[in-house]
Amino acid sequence: MLDKLIKYSLLGLICMGAMFFSSFHFVDSQIVPKWIITIAGIILLSIYLIIIISVNPVITHKIPQRHILRLISITILFQSLYGILQYFNICAPTNAFPVMGSFDNPAGFAASLCAGLPFCILGIIEAKGKMRWVLGFIPLLTTIAVLLSESRSGIFSTLILFICLGIRYLRISDKIKWVTFPIILIIAITSLYYLKKDSALGRLLVWECSISMLKSNLLTGYGTGGFEANYMDYQANYFKNNPQSSYTMLADNIQYPFCEYLRILVDYGLIGLLLLGGWIAYLVFCFYKYPSKNGVFALLCWITIGSFSLFSYPLMYPFVWLVLFYSTFILVKNHVYLITKKIPVKWLKIGALLSLFFLSLSGIKLYERVKAEIEWAHLAKFSYSEDKKYVLSQYNKIEKELGKDRYFLYNYAAELYQAGLYGESLVTAEKCRTLWADYDLEILLGQIKEELNQNEKAVNHYRTASYMCPNRFMPLYHIVLVLNKLEKNEEAQRVAKIIMDKPIKIPSSTIDQIKKEMNQLLIQSQSRKPSSPFLMDNFL
């Protein structure tokens, strides 16, 4: 009884934590806490299972599938209800999106629901009596929640799932299926495209720039984090070479390629994509080698997440990984058993001991990471306090743990800048720049270089930021300020004219103030020959 209680409690912690856990004790209050609670739960469950199997190898420690399916279904049900209540303003969302559940945006909400939906349907099939009727409402509520979220990737992948189910289970002729379903799919894709046309066109820009990245590293890619470290430089280069592009007003500060396959290709090249293809081929092999009803829905789960991955980033969310892992376990367990049963018991015990050792190390590492994350969030509350000495000493202390986190390095550099430690700020910002090509980081680098009297280098950073997001006003505004400081009045006037003629993407009081200042500058300026044309040709 105690054994079951511990196992089910840990499973519930993992599943519910991956879907719902959030905490303002972290800088990222939504995604990071979910990952931490998920990893912690997996480590604890794995250590527990290794220990009890080692102590009682004869006793079966298998967790019944119906319990796992019900846990997934209940988790999906609560998340769906949460999103639906947000839509009707009964539960207030935490930001501008009307429906996003316990996530930071609708993409995570829809991705997690779509990942679990195939197993909700399998749970209905596996259930008996009244439980089947109870579980029968969950796929309906989940589909409604995905529709209300307006996640086009979620709607598309849900449609793919139901089309696959229809092809396999509907008792109509194959001819009707292969005519009707493609028509439905074409109509749906067209409708979803026009639902948010500007957003769709913006993704085309991201994909075009991402593909151009592959010319340099097609075979091996840029490595883990390669997209974040390089993409915005390619977007800047695109707008530098295409100043009249129709994408200008759609450009944004991009962190993800909105396609998991493209991300794998950028980070790991053709080798990474081929490895993924080989893994999927292995799963399909296992599916046909050991056919089962469970295998059908496990494969459907992969298809659903794979469809979502075409236009979004579901692999950012831990619940999606949990469901993928469970799907993989269902598909490969028979084949893996045939392989492992030939391994001597002695080696299995050694493997268990090594696993226990590395899991313990992982637990210690996770604890240190959590401590650093919590301390960072605590420091963020003191960002503009007078006690800068304490804040900076603590930042320096936790840099040992978070020194490869680009967001931490950016915050640290900004704190050093605010404290007037411009040299140290530059070192930290440049370290961040090796991990992250980013609009805001370029602005910060420009401000640091200004304070260090490296004005022409500052202008280069502002100019790069302007190319990264050509619809933004702030980089050009900073350039005018620097040119005025250098008494390059003619050039400042020409940039001011560009600002005055620049169309506004999103109106704001800041833009109104910038335009007001530029108008005053133009009125007060007197025409004279440009002292140095080193800059302006790049903006005209």
The succession of helices and strands, N to C, reads: HHHHHHHHHHHHHHHHHHHHH
Q: How would you describe the oligomerization state of the chains in this entry?
A: single chain
Mean pLDDT: 89
Low-confidence stretches: 528-540
What distinguishing features does this structure have?
540 residues, mainly alpha, 21 helices, disordered C terminus
Describe this structure in words.
- With 540 residues, the protein is mainly alpha-helical.
- The protein has a domain at 1-63 and 343-373.
- It is 73% helix and 0% strand.
- The chain contains 21 helices and no strands.
- The protein has helices at residues 2-20, 31-55, 65-87, 106-126, 130-149, 152-169, 174-195, 197-213, 226-241, 260-289, 293-308, 318-340, 345-380, 388-402, 406-418, 422-433, 439-451, 455-468, 474-485, 489-501, 509-524.
- Helix 4 packs antiparallel against helix 5 and helix 6 (152-169) packs antiparallel against helix 11.
- The chain is globular and about 80 Å long.
- It starts with a helix and ends in a 16-residue tail after the last helix.
- The relative contact order is 0.07.
- Mean pLDDT is 89; it is low at 528-540.
